[in-house]
Protein 1
Amino acid sequence: MKFLATGPEVHTREIRGGAMLYDASRAGNAMEGWLDVDWWRERGHVIAAGEGRGSAWRVEADGRRMILRHYRRGGLIGRFNRDRYYWRGADATRCFREWRLLYQLMRVGMPVPTPLAAGYRREGNTYRADLLTACIPAVTSLAERVREQPVSLDTWARVGRWLRRFHLRGVFHADLNAHNVLLDPAGMVWLIDFDRGGLRVPGWWCDANLVRLRRSLEKLTERLPAAHFQESDWQVLLDAYFAAGAEELSLPEAAAEGALT
């Protein structure tokens, strides 16, 4: 994964047992406690838990709405090791890698959460990690929409077009499922939770991303009325996906050329 150089607003500093990476233009007064849910909870700023992989909480403070996520392991290994990862250096930590990916995508106008701060705390050969991002206002997940009622064909088409736009820029999402696709009232499609994501040359993994999304939709709707997710819905998504080309990207031309490599 290769990134552009970060701007002067990006800083790192030591915290207890590790380091913190943050955007001073958006979190100029960021402190170590910002990456600790108990710190926020003691001040009465934790509003709710979020959905998705790991442990996430919605935090509201000083007019800001933020999402704090603690990295947790899933699957079988998660039963024995909840939140520790093998230490391979600061730049290889999951939180720093995800923060930098979000930062690059945000810089070229892609619809992803704005990264505020990330931090790790090392314990011998392992570390724990946390990520703080700005909350995207007024969004609902595709999973929520599908559970509630049949989704419009226009929405399925918008999802397909935006997935194609991410893929054309080589944006790999390691866990593309209906919970990580968000929809806002203006019709924008957002992607969240880029843990283990990265930038790749477009290839077979694009199809694998789509297969993963379809499986999540099938699992989500297996006990719902058939109208909530039909083969025709998926076909509309695919038609829009394959019809979308680089010329359709609603981003500045300068950003489109070589911003993500």
Note: The first strand starts at residue 10 and ends at 15.
Protein 2
Amino acid sequence: MSFSFRLVTEPRALGPRAGVITTPHGTIETPVFMPVGTQATVKAMSPVELEEVGAQIILANTYHLYLRPGHELIARAGGLHRFMSWNRPILTDSGGFQVYSLGDIREITEDGVRFRSHIDGSYHVFTPERVIEIENALGADIAMCFDECVAYPSDRSYVERSVRRTTRWAKRCKAAHGRKDQALFGIVQGGVYPDLRKQSALDLAELDFPGYGIGGLSVGEPKSVMYDVLEETVSLLPVDKPRYLMGVGSVDAILEGISRGIDMFDCVLATRIARHGSVMTSTGRIIVRDARFAEDFGPLDPECDCYVCRNFTRAYIRHLLKAGEILGYRLTTYHNLYYLIKLVRGARDAILSNRFFEYKQEILMRTAKRSDS
């Protein structure tokens, strides 16, 4: 098995930490933010540009790649790395969240999930074994178990049944998983119920996965609730395994996650808001499409040294967005990913120099203020 994780800071159940993940396609310094490349592409970004912004690992999605172009085709192309020309690590989500989001066009049973494609309405079945077969064919460095993500709010009795099912599915995923060059992570569920989170975490820890995702958060619950549940959950997971908070990508949530011992993050937020003209800056988000930037010849963020901020003005980028030019979306996406990846890298540096909480406080104070510059 060519996957390993080691901490470079003192091992402890809670608190910020720095580590190194080793995979067949390279090492990853943690904590790390993973740009989302749902359909084997991070929207608007080329692989070369992803390297430029500092992406160490990207995420792709099993559900979407199964439906289009198909995992068999990707396997024939030589696997996901070769198919998309990305030679650094990849993580594939199992599709559990996507199936959850299908709502009334999916049916969950003990065996798996029967669902209708959002593309053409055709029927498909995902079982734990089928999902692992697809993820094995895709060949990512890290694959996620098939789980059930429950909505917020959800009835406690249903969440309890769901947690047990997710554990049973995790056992089936592990039994079906055959690639020695791919790490399979379990996913902790349990909604916002601390005792169910505890049950899920302990059950999955007993299965001894090489890493653990924390799913089912940031699905509508208040952030204060998310942080409480997160702290409760992290404290129960093995200290010597990477912890991945799934689908969380706002500045405050990332820093709060790191402060509680999270190692990995992913989210579509940075790229999605970029396509609507919203950009992350050192003093908070701005909407560069706004009329007030029509004659603003400064960079998106005066404190940013990315390619976009060194070469283009807010006025120019606003013009591109208003005109519907593709370059505008590419530039805002590039900047947002650079900003978020640099933020997390800065958090790692601060952890190593024993000043993370000062770093966190400074960032949160500055980004809480809306920038008018």
Note: The first helix runs from residue 47 to 52.
Protein 3
Amino acid sequence: MGLDKRRAWIAAAVLIIVSFAAACGSSSGGGSSSGGGAAAGKAVSTSTCGPVQGKGQYTIVSDFPLQGSSKHQTDQMNQAIVQVLEENDWKAGDKTLQFQACDDSTAQLGSWDSATCSSNANAYAGTESVIGVLGTFNSGCAELEVPVLNQAPGGAVAMVSPANTWPGLTQKTKVPGEPDKYYPTGTRNYARVIPADNFQGPALALLAQDLGVKSVYIINDKQAYGAGVASYFETAAKQLGITVLGNDAYNTKTGTNYQALFQQIGAKHPDAIMVGGLVCENGGQLIKDKVSVLGSNTGKVKLLLPDGFTTQSTIDDAGADVAEGAFMSVGGVPVEQLTGPGASFVSDFQAKYSPDAVDPYTPYGAAAAEVLLKAIEASDGSRSSVTDNLLNQDLTGTVLGDFSIDENGDTNQGSMTINVAKAGKLATYKVITPPADLIVTL
């Protein structure tokens, strides 16, 4: 259900590396519970991490792909994190903080890279001042990093993601060992502020029903996220009486032409195409070839895309005219519908950074920082104490309003926003909250 043999082998190899790194780290890190205080203010020394911002005893890092089509989203999320830290005077209670933005992508891939994710996680675990990670953006990268951080010297390092949607990171799935295999010490150190794909898939299926779709063809990228959201969509679509004509993997390699693929799909005459994947996986070309072969997204064959595509970069990569009418989902309520602290955050963000458009994930970057800062404030400054205070949080007055993080690390917010590409920009179409009978849990 989204994990191919190669990725499973990598994950197993990482666990072996982690065990070795943790053992080696105990000689220099002391294996104590002093966490951030043991090496005050030391920066993460790796070429993938940027310069230190702020000046504090404790280090927070972000871990996002900062190259490729996701850059529009991830740059804004880093800016949102800095804005939250500045608003809190670079403190969480009596703990002073500093921040480094780290890159888990490569220029060659233009997206997250498994080796980089693993080496980054080991660098964070081995830097004693690091007491929290904000990330990752991609669920597959989190699958590699969480176990490393879970076994860090001095206690598991807390991680809060603004964007991971694969359910298996926190919940049981059909993938053997999930989620326990990500927490080898038995301690949960991971949370997210975004609804998982078992909400997103049904929301897109309900959208298809709303659009009058009777039949759909699904293609997926074979990765945990893409294949996962495609599977949850398929289950919900069938439950709603929509005929699923196929659910097949597609080649994500840059330079691939998809015209032959869409010609084969077109022979089955679907009312819609659902894509489980990411815009950075040659997504612009995929959309171009869909329109070239099957016609405009405003025409007979609709295009349904998950949050891996929900960014201005999708429209820019495909071209405004080509992207027009494509539907894209993302967790939570639209940016323009945020109220109170959320509306103030957006206004301040626009004034400070003058973005072309505030990306849907930008407020989630801020909310992830708020969750982590609250856990740090409640802690004694050690890694283990921050992690102990990460889950079972009730948060009020945040950028996303009032919400909670449960004992698994999941948010209680389950609404999904459907955006549509319109006149070269993302526009809100509607907000969908899937009913309980469409939410798959094991």
Note: The radius of gyration is 21 Å.
Protein 4
Amino acid sequence: MLEAGFWGLAAASTLVAGALIALFVKIPRSIVALVLAFGVGALISALAFDLTEEAFSTGGTPAVAIGLAIGSMSFYVGDQLLSRRGGARRGSRMKQVSNNGLAIVLGALLDGIPESVVLGSTLLGGASLSIPFFFAVAVSNVPEALTAAVDLREEGHQPGWIIGLWVVVALVSAAAAAIGFSVLGVMGSSSWVPIIQAFAAGAILTMLVDTMIPEAFEDGGNLVGLATVLGFATAFFLNRVS
């Protein structure tokens, strides 16, 4: 459980790193968008070849279908609730938000919790960590926190508050990885892990199309497609050599 929590914290710590970069280094939004697109490609590869494929091989069609459906609907409903409360997830939509830190935290956790649970679940049964999925999560976290930190600073929040916000998200993600590993271990990994994997795949894929891809294209232009393919290929080959 401690190892699962450690890896969950390690992946989520790049959120803090991204916020620190945003607060102390001026990076053009076009560069941030390309990094974001690279993370999108890496996540798509990890979802396809780590999560969904593994869920299908161990749980079959029912587990994948149920997990994907519940995961995508969970993200959709959660995102709609945040929007109705005046919140936005990040990027161009976040620019319209004023002093709504709770909405931003909830939006980040909506991504981070299923990701962290899956990271923890990869260690069940003495298995080794899924390096491609860890890599994809860690890389995609950097531009997420970077763009959010820039917008929060423009809204008037102090650097200490912004860093503290992402530290809390990182700690919650670590706890989710540890608790997910513990609960799934008690319940029996054979029946629940495939559904959790498919759930995370559905939630994250919905998030990518709804928020990260439009934001990356808005700020990065036509080069976004190339950066996305590069991220996909990197994660794919990591999957094959790990």
Note: The CA atoms of residues 16 and 167 lie 6 Å apart.
